[in-house]
From TrEMBL:
This is Aspartate carbamoyltransferase. Its EC number is 2.1.3.2. Carbamoyl phosphate binds at R58, T59, R108, H138, Q141, G267, P268. The gene is pyrB. It comes from Dyella monticola. HAMAP family: Asp_carb_tr (MF_00001). It catalyses: carbamoyl phosphate + L-aspartate = N-carbamoyl-L-aspartate + phosphate + H(+). Residues 6-151 form the Aspartate/ornithine carbamoyltransferase carbamoyl-P binding domain. InterPro entries: Asp/Orn_carbamoyltranf_P-bd, Asp/Orn_carbamoylTrfase, Asp/Orn_carbamoylTrfase_sf, Asp_carbamoyltransf, Asp_carbamoyltransf_Asp/Orn-bd. Residues 158-303 form the Aspartate/ornithine carbamoyltransferase Asp/Orn-binding domain. SUPFAM superfamilies: Aspartate/ornithine carbamoyltransferase. PANTHER family: ASPARTATE CARBAMOYLTRANSFERASE (PTHR45753:SF6), ORNITHINE CARBAMOYLTRANSFERASE, MITOCHONDRIAL (PTHR45753). One of its GO terms (biological process) is 'de novo' UMP biosynthetic process. Catalyzes the condensation of carbamoyl phosphate and aspartate to form carbamoyl aspartate and inorganic phosphate, the committed step in the de novo pyrimidine nucleotide biosynthesis pathway. Heterododecamer (2C3:3R2) of six catalytic PyrB chains organized as two trimers (C3), and six regulatory PyrI chains organized as three dimers (R2).
Length: 308
């Protein structure tokens, strides 16, 4: 059944068809942009607000670029200079901004569930896109990761994906798991030190590992995660050198994976902690391709929501 996209807070509620439609649309956007230089006028007259309460480089700039390439107007709401810094409540900020006639709000917040709160409080007609909430979801990252993999390995039934690192605090891992399992990946493995692993019940379809050599064996895709110290209890903080030895991706470990295993990372990468430079910059790295695809996926999402 055709699922109209009104808001995007998590991939969990999207059907496989809807996810595939968004990925197909992202490819159409890529082709229509002719290498990203041409501006389309598909969202002329629409206004999109970027509301980022947490730092971001890739996600925020690519949402902005996506909106501009579609011809929309963009407002970047800088928290440091705004009234939220003076103690204004989130919903007062929201209603103030809404009075300026917005069509969509792209929100990133450290508290899981904030985008859903905005959906409940936003005026009808305003779409909400989650750009990362706490450790819960980062749906456009899940989509862009699936797109990057699909471009190289279109048959997901043959696919073994390993996600390694601080899975417990990672909204990227959660959205990736939703994307890859919905699209029919054969196996999704999660690996990390016990203190940084989530409850297994949260990921019923995944295989859990604490040994990275075993987890990466035969994998077609290795997605590395940053240690998200900002969300960790100080007792969870591993020693970085020891962490790299056990869970870092270097060329020795990559050789255990399937031939041509794709190396991915949502960024920002920490060289020498979760990934060695030789791998991050090596021939199997798809990290910059992920960044490029981020713009097309976000164009697809905004278009599906806002096109008349
Ligand atoms: C991720 C995030 O913010 O969740 N980064 C991103 O969006 N590119 C992952 C991270 O911060 O480690």
């Amino acid at each position: 059944m055709f699922q109209r996209l009104r808001h995007l807070t998590t991939l969990e509620s999207l059907s496989r068809d809807c996810i595939e439609r968004l990925l197909d649309r992202a490819i159409t956007m890529r082709d229509a942009c002719a290498h990203g230089t041409r501006k389309l006028d598909l969202l002329n007259g629409r206004t999109i607000l970027n509301l980022f309460f947490e730092p971001s480089t890739r996600t925020r700039t690519s949402f902005e670029l996506a909106a501009r390439r579609l011809g929309a107007d963009v407002i970047n709401f800088d928290i440091g200079f705004s009234s939220t810094a003076k103690g204004e409540e989130l919903f007062d900020t929201l209603h103030t901004l809404e009075a300026m006639h917005l069509d969509a709000i792209v929100v990133r917040h450290k508290v899981s569930g904030t985008p859903d709160e905005l959906v409940r409080h936003a005026m009808s007609g305003v779409s909400v896109v989650n750009a990362g909430d706490g450790n819960r979801a980062h749906p456009t990252q899940g989509l862009l990761d699936a797109l990057t993999v699909r471009q190289h390995r279109p048959d997901f039934r043959q696919l073994t994906v390993v996600i390694c690192g601080d899975v417990k605090h990672s909204r990227v891992a959660r959205s990736d798991v939703h994307a890859f399992t919905k699209l029919g990946a054969r196996e999704v493995r999660l690996c990390g030190p016990t203190a940084l692993m989530p409850d297994q019940q949260e990921f019923p379809g995944c295989k859990f590992y604490d040994n990275f050599d075993q987890a990466i064996e035969g994998a077609d895709v290795a997605i590395m995660l940053r240690l998200q110290k900002e969300r960790m209890a100080s007792t969870d903080l591993p020693d970085e050198a020891a962490y790299f030895r056990e869970y870092g991706l270097d060329s020795r470990r990559l050789a255990l994976a399937a031939r041509g295993c794709m190396v991915m990372h949502p960024g920002p990468i920490n060289r020498g902690i979760e990934i060695a430079s030789e791998v991050a910059d090596g021939p199997q790295s798809r990290i910059l391709e992920q960044v490029g695809n981020g713009v097309f996926v976000r164009m697809a999402v905004l278009y599906e929501m806002l096109a008349r």
